[in-house]
Amino acid sequence: MDVERSSRCNFVVNFLLEENYLLTAFELLHELLEEGRDAQAIRLKEFFSDPSHFPVDQISRYSSLGVADPQSLLEEKEAIEEKLTLRDYELRLAQEDVTKLKTELQMKSAFYLDKLSGIDASISVAVAFLWQLFSIINGLRRIPGRKYGDCPLKANERKDLNFAVKEYLLIGGYRLTAMTFCEEITDQNLDVWENSPASVPDALRHYYYQYLSSSSDAAEIQLASVNISLAFKMEKISLIRENESLQKANDRLKYEKELLMKNKNLAEGQINALTKSLATTHKDLKDKKNQIQDVKHAWEQQRKELNDRRDEIASLKKHVDISGSVQDPVSNSVDFAQPQTFENYKEEIKSLQKEIERLNAEERNIPNKGDSSRAENESTYTEEKVVEMDENKTLITHPMEPAGPVDSNVLSAPVQTFDNSTHNPEEKLAEPVMNLSNSNDVFPSGGTLSQQNEKPPSEYIGLHSKPENPSSGPAPENMGLGTIQILADALPKIVPYVLINHREELIPLIMCAIERHPDNATRDSLTHTLFNLIKRPDEQQRRIIMDACVSLAKNFGEVRTETEILPQCWEQINHMYEERRLLVAQSCGELAEFVRSEICDSLILSIIQQLIEDPATVVREAAAHNLALLLPHFPHMDKYFKVEELMFQLACDPSGVVVETTLKELLPAIINWGNKLDHILRVLISHILASAERCPPLSGVEGSVESHLRALGEEDRWNLDVLLRILADLIPYVHQKAIETCPFSSVSESNGTIFSISVLGLYAGGHVEWPAFEWMHADCFSGLIQLACMLPQKEDSLRNRTTNFLLAVSEHFGESYSKHVMVPIFMVAVGDAADLTFFPPYIHSRIEGLKPRTDVAQRLAILGILPLLLAGVLGCPGKHEQLADYLRKLLVEGAAKENQSTTHNNDIVNAVRFLCTFEEHHSLIFDILWEMVVSSNIELKISAANILKAIVTYVSTKVASAHVLPALITLGSDQSVNVKNASIDALGAVAQHFKNDMIVDKIRVQMDAFLEDGSHETTMAVVRSLVAAVPNTTERFRDYILEFHVEINS
């Protein structure tokens, strides 16, 4: 096999060199050498190393040509790497898809694997055919007795040989050589073998005859060509058949795969639909059960009332019997028709009793009929009560006529009461019963009835005969629906003609119509009227409208609230008036408890999200407030990260009102709802650092201090301030969580002693993890230190906010934490040595990493971290002595050192200036400054004068008069010119800031003393300080300066 392979390679090498395909031959040489096939590359080596073929001068000329630009090559390399990364990603996706399909296809394609085993043999036969073809054609050219030039290749022979060489290179794995070969042959498309004699099954026959015509020694070649032709023909036919069968199998598998995917999607859709249908069915079943319970309870109440009415009828019958027994004293005054009337009454009573029994029988069957017959039963029950009332009144009214003198009002009252009760029988039922009982008391004590009663008994009978048949008049329910319909039709016409300030008085009528009207379209129209009742409602009017909506939602239930009230909110969300959008924001929070929880975290949350982008400040504030109300109604935590993002968006709002609402209401609500304090803290620190890093540097000079400091814009400064406020508001939560997760059981329960030295010692052992406690000093402080190193000197407001945060941490976590945790971290951060005893060993490296390593880092630490150390860490209560010692070391001992640069001294002065912004440290600072003033060291005196000049704007008039001026006057009397000039500059700063006459007079006297000195340098220093003080000083001192200026000029 190796001999055959070498022979083929030699054929190709000879062909390439003879046809002068030098580029392809050179590429093949390299690929043969890479494969380690040096034996086949010998001729190529000799050819390309032959000076006769490639002269040295020509090669040197080619090597002197310009090469590619390294920058362009680098860019091309980066572009190719990006494309490669993209292709790798696409390859991974493709591989994942292939892995998914492989399992499914493996079972179905196992049947066809056996058929693929013969492909390799077929390919080998095809390759053998090509090389036999190549050998025959080459043999034709190398007939004995002929030279190469005597038998040049024909065009079609060269094309066939080119194609055979290209196939050999591809099959042999020489792809670069094959590409070079295709590029070098410009007159032929090697991707498609043209229809030539060599491309048909009997191609060998053509070359066979030509070979026989040129040589008599080709009998063996003839036989071999015939065998090869037959073998190739058979293998080609078998390959075509196998290819077709495999293609069909592949298509069938693809079709089955698509069918399976469609069935899967269809099954998933059916499952989702069935799940939703099941949930709806369960909910409807629950509602039906509740309705059944309500119906049963209502009918129990009605049955109880029916029993009461039966008792009343029995008592009335008894009263009728008693009235019949007492008729003898007045029988002479009653006509003959009266006994017949009593008989009629008795018959009516019997008929009414039968009617009551029938109604009782119907009542037993009513609870089984469901909700559809409930209204009809209520109407029947109302009619029954009306009939009973009519019966009772008739029985009592008639015997009153022949009796003694009774006031006519007693007779008329029951009649009037009945007339009213026919319209609302349930409400007026008690009144007739009371009137009847009163009238019963009249009869025994009344003696003889009044003879002046003008109405005969027939009139009373006629008066009450109307209501005896309740079906003859309109049913109360129908009358109620008619009233609601009239109200619904009239309200839209009435509302525009009511004064705006009085329209809220129509809200009860609108609510009644919305709640009771049966038509959906009418209810929607009335709900729209309710929301648009007032064009621009004020706060009180919005409160009234919203209370009405809440009341409707309570009575409606979830479904009607979602379909009738919430759509009105959505219509108003883009209204031109902010008052209406405010109404939408209020509804999102207050209606949340009356809708399904799935609606709260989807539709209502999307409304809130849109309102957060509203241009009106009051709308954004309302959105923040109502988002806090909405959170407890979320069914799960899927929307937590979205809500947290909205919270940070509201926190960075340009309006202070929105920020206050977010910090006071939304932030605690998210912490209580989400219980993800650790995530909020991580995101907060990242937001703080990102807000500062987004700002451009003060200088573009790389490696300078200014390149690390950031130029903050107004928006960036505002955002950082708010984020630091959030960080301060989270301290109680961090403190509480650290206490709750404390791993040491021997800890005291008192919050004041929770982080004692013993606890810190246990924590320093490093045997247990305490991430809630560790976050503050491991992550938070390092983030604040990083921020401080990016703030320029003028950003005192942000530095002040950070200082207040550190003071709050000291207050919550205690003195031990401040002394043994906070102080070491910030000491290391400014470049000083610190004791890390109370830190676990695995944190030591992180804390040591805060130490500045370069001069630039050291100056950044002095500029940004030293003020925080002085005011926020050492400035907390209880560290007065430690702060004094550190300041004395910094100012007295530091200034006494030699080779201190002016820049370093100015940075120290700036840190002390920031400490003076806290009034409680003034006395300590002035004590140390006085030590520097009375010192014999000139550098200390100059430094004291510079500090006094810097802190002038942060002291009161009293402090300036008692401490600053005496110190500067003392320095002004020093013999050193530098000290005297430094005090002059400081006095000029005092003159600019204070306008007190006493202070100005002292400064003027001291300036005169400087001028009397006569030194030119001192005089110039006085001139500079006075000129700078002119715009801001008092009028008297300004006149003094002008006089001095005139004197100098003269």
Please write out the topology.
Layout: H1 2-18, H2 22-35, H3 42-48, H4 56-63, H5 70-113, H6 119-141, H7 155-172, H8 175-184, H9 203-214, H10 219-325, H11 337-365, H12 374-397, H13 408-421, H14 425-428, H15 430-445, H16 457-465, H17 476-494, H18 507-516, H19 520-531, H20 539-556, H21 558-572, H22 578-590, H23 597-612, H24 617-630, H25 640-651, H26 656-674, H27 677-693, H28 714-729, H29 731-740, H30 757-764, H31 771-788, H32 796-813, H33 815-829, H34 841-848, H35 855-873, H36 880-896, H37 902-915, H38 922-933, H39 938-951, H40 957-972, H41 977-993, H42 997-1012, H43 1016-1029, H44 1035-1049
Name the features.
single chain; 1050 residues; mainly alpha; Leucine-rich Repeat Variant; 44 helices; 0% strand; flat; RP404-like protein; RELCH; ARM-like; HEAT_type_2; coiled coil
Describe this structure in words.
One of its GO terms (biological process) is intracellular cholesterol transport. Keywords: Coiled coil. This is RP404-like protein. It comes from Hibiscus syriacus (Rose of Sharon). InterPro entries: ARM-like (IPR011989), ARM-type_fold (IPR016024), HEAT_type_2 (IPR021133), LisH (IPR006594), RELCH (IPR040362). The chain is flat, with a radius of gyration of 53 Å. It starts with a helix and ends with a helix. Helix content is 73%, strand content 0%. It has 1050 residues and is mainly alpha-helical. The longest helix is centred in the N-terminal third of the chain and has 107 residues. About 14% of the residues have low confidence. Helix 28 packs parallel to helix 32. The protein has 44 helices and no strands. Among the domains are: 53 residues, no CATH class; 170 residues; 137 residues, Leucine-rich Repeat Variant (Alpha Horseshoe), CATH 1.25.10.10; 123 residues, Leucine-rich Repeat Variant (Alpha Horseshoe), CATH 1.25.10.10.
